[in-house]
Fold this sequence. Notes:
- It is built from 2 helices and 22 strands.
- Helices cover about 10% and strands about 40% of the residues.
- The longest helix has 16 residues.
- Helix 1 packs parallel to helix 2.
- Strand 12 and strand 13 form a beta hairpin.
- The strands form 4 sheets. Strands 1, 11, 12, 13, 14, 18 and 20 form a 7-stranded mixed β-sheet that branches. Strands 5, 6, 7, 8, 9 and 10 form a 6-stranded antiparallel β-sheet that branches.
- By secondary structure, the chain is mainly beta.
- It is globular and about 55 Å long.
Amino acid sequence: MATVTRSTIFRRTVALTFAxxxxxxxxxxxxxxxxxxxTTTVLVPPTAASSVPSTVxxxxxxxxxxxxxxxxxxxxxxxxxxxxxARYLELRRTSSALLGIALTTSGDVFVAGGTVPxxxxxxxxxxxxxxxxxxxxxxxxxxxxxxxxxxxxIDGRPLAGRIAGAGTTADAEGxxxxxxVAYVTNADQIVVVLSTSNTSEYEVELFGFAAIxxxxxxxxxxxxxxxxxxxxxPSGASGVTMxxxxxxxxxxxxxxxxxxxxxxxxxxxIPVPSAQA
Length: 277
């Protein structure tokens, strides 16, 4: 099936923080037939990195950082399948593609590209950078064999307990959506990456900008603070959607509405898994 990368139109400016870099994305008018996303970056100093020694050989941390920066690197022999490290890798690669941000690797500062990954001596840490700043990857933990990355910390904050993998599929009127990864950022936002497929006979427009996240823990629902990715899907097409919510309660449901070309309203109720500790 074809893959569609047309951006969803949404209503507000949103700040999406991946550790050290604060990404501010603005969109055009809701009524426009097409939209483009302008992305700027503001440097936010990262939190202090952890001093806990890594249990991973330094070169493995560098290889993981390089895989984050270069989506063409095959990471199947680098991370434990279904692990925190694998989920974070998918999240960063997807967000970078949707936001149009190039990642590089460097010991301490952003450089334009083509750099060689480096490890901070004696700390077992590596650094991943974009135009807004750098993120320190540390406290690497491997599988029992010591060869695959299982989990790590982001700017000193462990991933464990705040990143979830694939959820259950939701299907309504031939529109199929499923959470691929959900993550509580260091800025206390939830970023959710979803796969979307249109198996109906009609084009559909999905209103990701109006998605509502309802945590299992209860309380009021949170409307999407930002939406990127597949907004309009022709029949037979598939794509990726990324949503951001200003909440930290991982685990719940996302409600998304849409409209098919034949005038049929579509309502999807998509489960969001809780993080595995």
